[in-house]
Amino acid sequence: MTIRRRDCLTLFGLAAGIGMAPMLSASTPRKIERIGLQLYTVRDAMAKDVAATLATVAKAGYLEVETAGTGSLSAEQFSIALANTGLTAPSAHVMLKQMAEQPDELLALAETIGYQYLVLPWLAPEQRSASGYAQVIDTLNRFGERCTRAGVQLCYHNHDFEFQTIGGELPYNLLLRECDSKFVRFELDLFWAVHAGVDPITYLRADPERFPLCHVKDRNAAGEMVDVGQGNINFSAMFSAGTGLKHHFVEHDQPADSLASIRNSIQAVQKIRF
């Protein structure tokens, strides 16, 4: 078969285009396409009117939320309110006692609202001991296996106390090691990790797939939690390192004005490139 010069040029052009595509993609800055909000930030507004708060969240530009309860609404009502605003809720914070005593109810809740992740957000002070962490890990592994069978991913969310040494080891490292990676992953709270004096990038790079979720909250030079963009956390570097991150939830634990805070933060996140 004779290949004409024009055919050679065409083939060369296709090959060059295919070869250059990864280069072009790699050099194009990325941004967070679906910015989420942890609804704990607006718990004051949620206590007054859940549906109206969700509408305000959506109007601010958020596309998904992580719940910390559904306020005065049932799971079915909350699901309808989400649909009415166009929001989705891929993740929920739930407590350890519920995991141990009400696993079926939690998984039914996940099915009703559409949660893909259930997250343990907090440990009481009496649970933060060597024996306490052992019990937590056992519960997470047991419930995590049930979640996996149901198509839901169980995660653990940190504060700063997990980075305080107990028995010569950081509890966070213990959790990473002893929680079965097949069943338990992690939601990395960037503020609390930085506040504890550790570099989130180290964890994100070491095992990217272990961290599908993160909390995006900022910290100023005085160590105070502030709206995103008003502090000095390098989110661009962290997002770049977190190649396994699928959901980024803005949060502020104690905002002076919760609705103003979520507007300020999303505007800052929308500008981040990595």
Task: List the main descriptive attributes of the protein structure presented here.
alpha/beta; TIM Barrel; eight-stranded parallel beta barrel; 10 strands; disordered N terminus
Topology:
Elements: H1 5-27, E1 35-38, H2 43-48, H3 50-60, E2 64-67, H4 75-85, E3 88-93, H5 96-101, H6 103-113, E4 117-120, H7 130-149, E5 153-157, H8 171-178, E6 184-189, H9 190-195, H10 200-206, E7 213-216, E8 218-219, E9 225-226, H11 235-241, E10 247-250, H12 258-271
Parallel strand pairs: 1-2, 1-10, 2-3, 3-4, 4-5, 5-6, 6-7, 7-10
Antiparallel strand pairs: 8-9
Helix pairs in contact: 3-4
Describe this structure in words.
There is one protein chain. This protein has helices at 5-27, 43-48, 50-60, 75-85, 96-101, 103-113, 130-149, 171-178, 190-195, 200-206, 235-241, 258-271; strands spanning 35-38, 64-67, 88-93, 117-120, 153-157, 184-189, 213-216, 218-219, 225-226, 247-250. The protein is of the alpha/beta class and 274 residues long. The chain has one domain (30-271): TIM Barrel (Alpha-Beta Barrel). The strands form two sheets. An eight-stranded parallel beta barrel has the order 1-2-3-4-5-6-7-10. The chain has a two-stranded antiparallel sheet with strand order 8-9. The longest helix has 23 residues, at 5-27. The chain is globular and about 45 Å long.
